[in-house]
Design a protein that fits this description.
The chain is of the alpha/beta class. It contains 14 helices and 25 strands. Strands 8, 9, 10, 13, 14 and 15 form a six-stranded parallel β-sheet that branches.
């Protein structure tokens, strides 16, 4: 019988008792296996000596039901021993129990005759069965479930439900005058000295790093993050001609550097400083592509002058700081690459100067409004328009890096009359608002017995005086047999009375 079921595909077994003219047949399933079998409940068979439940009888076109027979079939009755269970008594079934259909299921032409009696379903009917029906859920139950799902979705939206791409918060001006110390072109051996000085002053800063230097000194990058400083993207190699010869290269270096920073320190960054600043290097196309990608481009309003030439002294740096205009927020340009030892010497005096003026210090973040230069009337470079494909690739990259990974499902706790069913988040499925649980574990928690034919995928669950047959939706028989919990409990006469879903635990009461 198992072999013929798999050969004939979508087959509903009709068992007719030799002692009565009854028949039983299946409900339409939620989905269809690769072999064509319906998934979900097939039939409820009462235990011996219990009240007999009503069953549905299917009448095939061009045939008539005659007692326990089907017209056109052999005259001998079909043995209920095929399922090794008593056959159900014949009787009507309410349309609501036909899983939300408007009437009895119509089958296509009978397929081959077989000793174990199978009825084939035409492919057009199969599509309708799969699309329209949910297993053993009445219209009332379905409407309640849909309401429950909508309510729960609203809760999830308020309590950290499905993640959405992150967006920068609206910039807010700090209450106190603030200095943002920024260091470009590192990390290098001097970065360690900068970190020691900042630590002694309990001051945080921002480091706009070159990807090639991050690759060389990932340990320093990790220390920067561990000590509470911010990291920004300063491209990979700082070569102006390549970066400003076309946006595709600029975008490629941003993505490469971000990946390098992530590998070193486990974080992405949307803070960017264009090598040499944006003035004369960025045109409208560059600005627009960066804006659409969600990057925050930071120039500066205080230039320490430490990179104007190679032999700049610490005294010159301090003089440039002192002569710069003061504002409520100051973004100070400094460098920590290997050629900037004088910057290290000047740093304590820079911090003392601004502290004396009443400033506090902070690292840049996505809530700080960037200082940005105006767009130059004439670029320093000759290039074409921004490549749309490159701009779109960068946008998609930032979208991926700023979208938080999905949070693992919390455990599920089902309170039953004789005990609890506890499932880890990986043991149950939540799809389109429907919770499905392993049928064997549910039956065990209910004090019943469970067996499954591993070849056909038909499972038998017996709880109390009820026996239910299910055909699994999952074609892979090595995976757990999952069933919708509300429908499964309902088959055994158990109703869900309440539930509470939080980010830490999902609970259901019966």
């Amino acid at each position: 019988m198992r072999r013929r079921m798999r050969m004939l595909g979508w087959a509903l077994i009709i068992a007719c008792s030799t002692a009565s003219a009854g028949s039983w047949a299946g409900y339409k399933g939620e989905a269809v296996r690769a072999e064509g079998l319906p998934s979900g409940r097939i039939a409820v068979v009462p235990q011996e000596g219990s009240p007999q439940a009503p069953s549905a009888s299917f009448t095939a076109p061009n045939s008539t039901a005659q007692g326990g027979m089907v017209a056109g079939m052999p005259d001998e009755p079909v043995e209920s021993a095929m399922l090794d269970k008593p056959a159900m008594a014949e009787g009507p079934i309410e349309s609501a129990k036909l899983a939300m259909t408007d009437g009895p299921v119509q089958l296509a032409e009978l397929d081959k005759l077989a000793a174990d009696v199978q009825v084939a379903v035409a492919s057009t009917e199969l599509d309708k069965l799969a699309a329209d029906v949910q297993v053993a859920v009445t219209s009332t139950e379905s409407e309640k479930l849909a309401t429950d799902i909508r309510v729960e979705s609203a809760k999830l939206a308020k309590t950290g439900g499905p993640a959405q791409p992150a967006k920068p918060a609206k910039p807010a001006q700090p209450a106190k005058p603030t200095v943002y110390l920024t260091f470009d072109d590192g990390p290098s051996e001097h970065t360690l000295e900068v970190l020691d000085i900042l630590s002694s002053y309990k001051v945080t800063a921002t480091f706009f790093m070159l990807g090639e230097h991050v690759d060389e000194r990932p340990d320093i990058v990790r220390r920067v993050v561990q000590e509470g400083h911010a990291i920004g993207n300063h491209t990979y190699d700082h070569e102006y001609k390549k970066l400003y010869g076309g946006f595709a290269e600029f975008a490629r270096q941003l993505m490469k550097t971000d990946q390098t920073i992530y590998q070193a320190a486990g974080q992405h960054t949307r803070l960017v400083r264009a090598p040499g600043g944006s003035y004369g290097n960025f045109d409208k196309g560059y600005w627009e592509a960066m804006r659409k990608s969600g990057y925050l481009v930071h120039d500066w309003n205080v230039d320490s002058g430490d990179s104007r030439r190679l032999d700049v002294t610490a005294d010159e740096i301090i003089q440039n700081i002192h002569s710069s205009k003061l504002a409520h927020e100051l973004t100070v340009l400094l460098h920590d690459s290997h050629s900037h030892a004088e910057t290290i010497k000047a740093l304590p005096r820079i911090i003392d100067f601004y502290k004396g003026k009443g400033y506090t210090f902070a690292a840049l973040n996505e809530q700080v409004k960037p200082v940005q230069f105006s767009q130059a009337a004439k670029l320093k470079w000759s290039r074409g328009e921004v490549e749309l494909a490159a701009a779109d690739e960068l946008r998609k990259y930032v979208l991926r890096m700023t979208t938080p990974p999905p949070q693992p499902k919390p455990p599920l706790l089902v309170h039953l009359e004789d005990g609890d069913l506890k499932l880890a988040g990986s043991e149950y499925m939540l799809s389109k608002g429907v919770i499905s649980v392993p049928l064997d574990k549910l039956v065990e928690a209910l004090g019943g017995t469970y067996t499954e034919d591993r070849e056909s995928g038909i499972a038998e669950a017996a709880v109390g005086d009820k026996r239910v047959f299910w055909v699994r939706e999952e074609a892979d028989l090595s995976k757990p047999h999952l069933v919708p919990i509300r429908a499964a409990l309902s088959e055994f006469g158990i109703q869900i009375t309440d539930y509470a879903f939080t980010a830490e635990l999902k609970e259901i009461w019966t």
